[in-house]
Sequence to fold (74 residues):
Amino acid sequence: MNHLFKYSLNERKPIELIYLNTSGEISYRLVIIRRIKVDNVMVYDLQKQQMRTFSTDGILSVAKPKRQRGVNYA
Fold:
C-alpha cells in the first residue's frame, strides 16, 4: 500500500482507493496522494474535486486505475 501511495505522491498520478468509513459505508475513490502521515493520508479526490483525509485503518484496497482516460478506438 505504501508503495502505491509514494508512486501517486511523487508522480502525481491517480490511484484507486476503496475505503470503509466509521459509519460502515464502503466507497470507491479516484485520488492523488498529497501527504502521507503515520495514521492517515491527505488526498485530492478527483470526482469531488476536493481535498480529503482518510485514516489508513479504513483503507481496504489500493490499486492503479484499470482504465486509461481518453478515447477508446475500436
